Amino acid sequence: MQQRIDEVERRIQLACSRSGRSRDEIKVIAVTKYVSESTTFDAIRHGLLQLGENRWQDAQAKWQAVQSEMALEPTWHFIGSLQTNKVKEVVGRFEWIHSLDRPSLAKEINRKAEQLGIRVPCLIQVNVSGEDSKHGLQPEELREFAASLSSLPHLRPAGLMTMAPYEAEPEETRPVFRRLRELRDELNQAALLTEPLQELSMGMSNDFEIAVEEGATWLRLGTVLVGKEEEA
């Protein structure tokens, strides 16, 4: 695993050099949804303390095992589509939610967070590419949705998230990442939220270098970083 970690780090550093960015601006989430508990433990031992999962049903056993068996406590990121009826399982266990995409979900996250006395940082998911298979708001829906979040004090809008189409040539994803950055900047300029949006969660194993060059602050890396197993 250390070899993969070192290679990813080398590629991030090069992308930062090409785009004039500081490496400190970029954080890496190890996406553990396709690996076992033992590999998840190994990732934590190697210093990967930001972990991403897509579904509570799949993450539950790993989350519980880490809580009971690991001295190091990672930060968990929920990066998949979140069903409203699963919010009660996720909020309070996952510090970050990267897939806020509808009013009913926002209200339920706020309700559960209020019960727990916490404020949950969330990233608004935007379907920049327009693909039917992708979740997220349409770009033209973003302003109205963002403005509505000001009435939910236990939810902290922290940035935007998107998934680019899988492309054989990663360079072709650049317009998607660039547009997400522009949408964040436009929202901040409009001052619709009480705090400026800082984060851009974009870039996966196939295209993360392009995402870095276009302003990503969170990279969601699975196979390229922790591998993939047939059975997790």
Number of domains: 1
Describe the strand arrangement of the main beta sheet, using strand numbers.
Answer: 7-6-5-4-3-2-1-8
The overall average pLDDT, rounded, is 95
Oligomeric state of the chains in view: single chain
**CATH architecture field:** Alpha-Beta Barrel
H-E string: HEHEHEHEHEHEHEHEH
Largest sheet: 8 strands, parallel
Please indicate the percent range of residues in DSSP E strands (runs of 2 or more): 15-25%
Distance between the termini: 17 Å
Counting H and I runs of at least 4 residues, what is the number of helices?
9
Low-confidence stretches: none
- DSSP strand tally: 8
Overall outline? globular
The amount of helix comes to 40-55%
